[in-house]
Each structure stands twice: as structure tokens, then as C-alpha cells.
Design goal:
Nucleotidyltransferase, domain 5, 3 domains, 38% helix, 7-stranded mixed β-sheet, alpha/beta, 22 helices, Rossmann fold, 20 strands
């Protein structure tokens, strides 16, 4: 048998021809929905969600039973009958693509490292065989775009790397230009670097390629595969044969997508593959492509050039059930264990802030961006008394959130755990006295009661008196060994200079994901592990219950004041104090960073 790579030197037309004496198939994409022969399993519908496959092919489940029933009928009418005769299935081309993975590629990471890349059933039947098997009347590839939306840990990057290498070595395109793209060069490099390692691991590919830091060149084919940066304005003038766009949901705007997808116009059979997990931004280019793919799958619109594959749970599905996990995640039992998902599900049930992340990352559901974060039943179990007098002389780290001068200012001192006990939080709050009554009526919050109980200090006037805060901090400095105080660098310059002059070490702290994500996660870790004592302070509890976090596509989190129902200044101060304690307090790295949160049940 001739080498698959040597076959690539032949023209696309020659490669697409039928064997002598064998009539060209004329079956449409909807043949199966129309009751086609059982052995012609290749003639599947546009996407896995629209399948009506056999029971044992559970990986080809629909996003929902209702959509499945609708799409069966629609596919038989639209992508079946109407497309009859327009496209044909080249079984030889489909098998060639499948063999390329198994014979020339191998896994390079994890437990399968060094083993041949034998496609999983869902990868083979729903993506690779349809993508490279369906042809137009002229023998060129039917599909010019593929939208593949699958959960995390389903092998997206490895599959994308394999597709890119097939386009480079075995697609029969002279002078092919293949590109990996993403929201940033680092993300794009994930797929490219996997492809690099695959080439290095295979002697036949290595002989035919020159591998560089940011490119793979196939000299005999005059073809190349390169990784791109995210700067759209530098990409005009490309003549792409193949584009692999990784994690489209992270893309901040449509500029790079538009530039790259319009760069393929001069090619005979180009291919743009977007492979992604679900996101949350419904104004994004990814949501636009998701909705178009969904409508194609359900037969609402017709796009004969798009292969749409979406594995996801429906909104009404019970996200805690194993059956839902199997429906949504084609890699369960292979690339992702049920045991791991059970642990993540327990965490999501116990932690409202993690539920959206679980559903988006592992069940591939489009979620909202903001989520409540603190499980209050767990918070209330941590009301162990904190004796301020007993803490005298001990080392501590502070977080100071001044907010605006008309709202609440908060200071939290964090004392490290002693002898395996809990870290202790000591909060302080300030509010303008003059408008306090109006705020009580407006916010329906008992500020006046908390002032009378000594939980909040009311300063004179209609704005917070920073001199009162400075005086309190200097008094606390005489009582406790305050090592550092973190503060929001915006709007606190004068006070920070005065505190610094008074001998306190002040540390400006950003409020973005980079600065706030790690300590916000550490706060949750302390709560879940029962290692935080907050003394049951009702003001801090109110703020904990108010706190909503915003999550970015990478899973980083930070408090979101704009989305929180009421004030969260004390929680922001607590998080900043935890940050300084974790960095400078001699604490070991958080287990949250090394093995994740484990839920402790009573």
C-alpha cells in the first residue's frame, strides 16, 4: 500500500476518483435519516446532536430529546432530500484520513503517550470521516467549515493538532498554508506544540518536515503550518488552506476570526475548524457561530458547507446525574473519569460559585458570567469566637478597601492559623454618619443598629473621614504586629502615604483577575476546609451573602461589586488580607492550587 503521505503528492481530483468499475456513490448527507442501508454508517447527519443512531452509539446523543425528534424529521427533508445528488461520500478518502491518525500520529502526553492515535468512535464517525469523506461533484471537499463544541478534557487540542497535520501532509494541496489561531499566541501554541511533538515522534513525518519554533515546513509539498499571534491587523494577505481556531469562546472580538476566515478564498478546498468549549458571552463571535451551528443541526437553516458538532447537556437536564454527564461529554471513561466528575459535582453542589463553571466546562452549557460564590450554610459553621484581646502582639496581615467616600470602608486583619487551627479574621467598618438614616431606609440594612452595637464606626459628616481610619490603624499597630496592609491602589494615595510615613508597610493591590483570583479561590478553600474563624460578625456575614464573582474564560475569578446585590467591601478587604497572608505569612502553598478543593461533609 502506498504511503498516505506520498499519496498527498497527487492532485485532489485524482485522489477523489472512484476505483475502476465502481460507480460513484450519490447518497446524500441525510441518507441515514431517510432509512439508508445499515452498513452505510458514514452517511450521518450534519452534527452529532441531530443523530438518530443506534443505542450503542451513545456518544452521538442529541443535546435534547425534543431537538433530536425535531431534527430527525428536518434532516430527512432539508439536508437529505434537498441535497440528494449534490454530494457523495468518498469512503476511501474517509478511511485515508482515519488511517493517517492511527498510522502516523501518536499521543504525546498522559497515560497514552507513545501510543497510536486511534480515533475514538465519536471522533471518527462524527468528525473525521464526515469532514474528509463528503465530497462535491467536482471531487473537492464538501465542508469548508467545522464548528466543534465539546466539553473540557475531551481531547480537543489533540484532535485539532491531528487535523492540522492531515491538512499539511495528506490533503493533496500544493503550497498549503495551515495556521493555528486563538485569542493569544500562548493559547494557539497549545495545539501547534502538540503537532510539533507528534511530528518529532514519527520517523516518516520527521523525514518530510523541518520543525522550527513557530512553524513546521514540508519542503516537498511547499507547505507550512504556523502558529499565529492574536493581532488581526497583521494577518491580511494570508492565503490559508487550513485554519484551526482553538477555544473560540475566549476570542474578545470578531476581528481575527473575520480576517482569517476570509483568507481562504483563493483555495480550492479550504477548511476552517473552530474547536471550543461553551462560553458565557452571548455577544461574542463564538455565540454567533454556536447559534448558527445549532440552527443547522436542528434544520432551521441550511448550510451545506458547515459540519456542526455539539455535545452538551440541555438547560432542563439534571446536571447532577451521571446520565446527563454521559450525554454531554463524549470522553467519559476514556479522557475523563466518572470518579473525577463526581468529585467536581459534589463541589458544585456545595459551592454555588462553582456550579456555573462545572456546567460550562464539563457539560458544555452556555452559562451566565456572574455567580454567587459563598455557600452561606458553610460560612455560618465558621462563627467560632475571635477574641481580639488574645490576639494582642500576634503577627497579622491586613486588607483595606476604602470604596468611595460615601459608602462603607472596610479593614480586615488576618491572623495565621496556629497549631493546625483556623486562620482568624478581625474586621472593622466605617460609614458616614450624616446620611446613615437615609441609607437604612434605602438599603433596608440596619446600619444604625450595627453602629450602636459597635460593629461599624460612624464618622462625622457626609463622607467617610479618612483621618478616623488612619487613627484606628495606628492604634491597631500598637496592639498587633501588623506586617503588611494591602489596599486598592485607586483613590487611596494620600492615606497610603500617611500610613507609610507612620511606619506601616502598605502594598498596592490591583482589583483585576491577575491579583484577585488566587486569594478569592483561597478564601473558598478556607471556608470549605473549615479553616477560617470570622467570629460570626453580622456585617461581614451580610457582605459574604452579597458577594458575586465574575469568572473569565480561563476559570479565574474575582469579586464583582457591580453585580453584587449590596455592599461587599469587607469581603474584598478579607480577600486582600488573605493574599498578603498567603504571600508573606510563611504559609505553605494552598492545596487548592495543587489538587483542588475537596468537599468536607458532616
Amino acid at each position: 500500500m502506498n504511503s498516505l503521505i506520498e499519496d498527498a503528492a497527487r492532485s485532489v481530483g485524482a485522489r477523489a476518483q472512484d476505483r475502476p468499475g465502481r460507480p460513484r456513490p450519490t447518497r446524500s448527507i441525510g441518507a441515514r435519516a431517510q432509512g439508508g442501508r445499515g452498513q452505510e454508517r458514514d452517511a450521518r447527519s450534519v452534527g452529532a446532536r441531530a443523530q438518530g443512531g443506534r443505542g450503542q452509539e451513545r456518544d452521538a446523543r442529541s443535546v435534547g430529546a425534543r431537538a433530536q425528534r425535531r431534527s430527525r424529521a428536518r434532516n430527512a427533508r432539508s439536508t437529505g432530500a434537498r441535497a440528494q445528488g449534490a454530494y457523495w461520500f468518498d469512503r476511501e478518502a474517509a478511511e485515508r484520513a482515519e488511517r493517517f491518525f492511527a498510522e502516523h500520529l501518536q499521543h504525546v502526553k498522559g497515560e497514552w503517550a507513545g501510543k497510536p492515535f486511534v480515533l475514538a468512535r465519536w471522533q471518527r464517525d462524527k468528525i473525521i470521516r464526515p469532514l474528509f469523506g463528503w465530497k462535491r461533484a467536482d471531487g473537492t471537499r464538501r465542508y469548508r467549515k467545522a464548528y466543534i463544541e465539546i466539553p473540557r478534557k475531551a481531547g480537543k487540542s489533540t484532535l485539532a493538532a491531528g487535523i492540522a497535520l492531515h491538512l499539511l501532509f495528506s490533503d493533496g494541496e500544493a503550497g498549503a498554508e495551515i495556521y493555528s489561531a486563538a485569542a493569544d499566541r500562548e493559547q494557539a501554541a497549545i495545539v501547534f506544540e502538540l503537532a510539533q511533538q507528534m511530528v518529532e515522534a514519527n520517523p516518516r513525518l520527521r523525514e518530510r518536515a523541518e520543525v522550527f519554533r513557530r512553524s513546521i515546513v514540508a519542503p516537498k509539498l511547499a507547505s507550512s503550518y504556523k502558529v499565529l499571534s492574536s493581532d488581526a491587523f497583521t494577518k491580511h494577505g494570508l492565503n490559508a488552506h487550513g485554519i484551526v481556531f482553538d477555544e473560540l469562546h475566549v476570542q474578545p472580538n470578531r476581528e481575527l476570526w473575520d480576517v482569517l476566515t476570509t483568507s481562504v478564498g483563493a483555495r480550492r478546498q479550504p477548511l476552517v475548524v473552530a474547536i471550543t468549549t461553551a462560553g458565557y458571552d452571548r455577544e461574542s463571535i463564538c455565540w454567533e457561530q454556536h447559534e448558527h451551528a445549532r440552527q443547522v443541526i436542528e434544520g432551521i437553516v441550511r448550510d451545506d458547507e458547515l459540519l456542526a458538532v455539539i455535545y452538551a447537556a440541555d438547560p432542563e437536564d439534571d446536571w447532577t446525574r451521571v446520565s446527563t454527564w454521559r450525554k454531554a461529554h463524549p470522553g467519559i471513561g476514556v479522557t475523563l473519569s466518572k470518579q473525577f466528575l463526581r468529585g467536581e459535582c459534589r463541589l458544585a453542589k456545595a459551592t454555588p460559585g462553582y456550579q456555573n463553571a462545572f456546567r460550562r466546562l464539563y457539560l458544555n452549557q452556555w452559562t451566565q458570567q456572574e455567580t454567587r460564590y459563598i455557600p452561606m450554610e458553610r460560612w455560618d459553621q465558621l462563627g467560632e469566637a475571635v477574641d481580639a484581646a488574645e490576639l494582642a502582639g500576634q503577627a497579622c496581615y491586613g486588607g483595606l478597601d476604602l470604596a468611595s467616600t460615601t459608602d462603607i470602608a472596610a479593614l480586615v486583619l488576618m491572623f495565621p492559623a496556629v497549631n493546625g487551627g483556623s486562620a482568624r479574621a478581625l474586621p472593622f467598618f466605617w460609614i458616614p454618619a450624616e446620611n446613615m438614616r437615609e441609607r437604612v431606609l434605602r438599603d433596608r440594612v440596619p446600619y444604625d443598629v450595627w453602629v450602636r452595637e459597635g460593629l461599624i464606626e460612624a464618622t462625622e459628616g457626609n463622607v467617610i473621614d479618612y483621618a478616623a481610619i488612619r487613627g484606628k490603624l495606628l492604634a491597631l499597630k500598637e496592639t498587633y504586629n501588623i506586617r503588611e496592609i494591602a489596599f486598592d491602589r485607586w483613590g487611596a494615595t494620600q492615606l497610603s502615604q500617611e500610613l507609610d510615613a507612620a511606619g506601616l508597610t502598605v502594598v498596592p493591590t490591583g482589583q483585576g483577575f491577575a491579583s484577585m483570583s488566587a486569594p478569592t479561590k483561597e478564601l473558598l478553600n478556607l471556608i470549605m476546609a473549615g479553616k477560617l474563624a470570622h467570629g460570626g460578625n453580622p456585617v461581614l456575614r451580610w457582605m459574604a451573602d452579597n458577594m458575586v464573582v465574575r469568572q473569565d474564560p480561563a476559570g479565574n475569578v474575582k469579586p464583582d461589586k457591580s453585580k453584587s446585590t449590596q455592599r461587599i467591601d469587607g469581603m474584598v478587604a478579607l480577600i486582600m488580607a488573605i493574599d498578603r497572608l498567603s504571600r508573606q505569612g510563611g504559609a505553605k502553598p494552598s492545596v487548592y492550587e495543587t489538587r483542588g478543593v475537596r468537599v468536607i461533609t458532616a
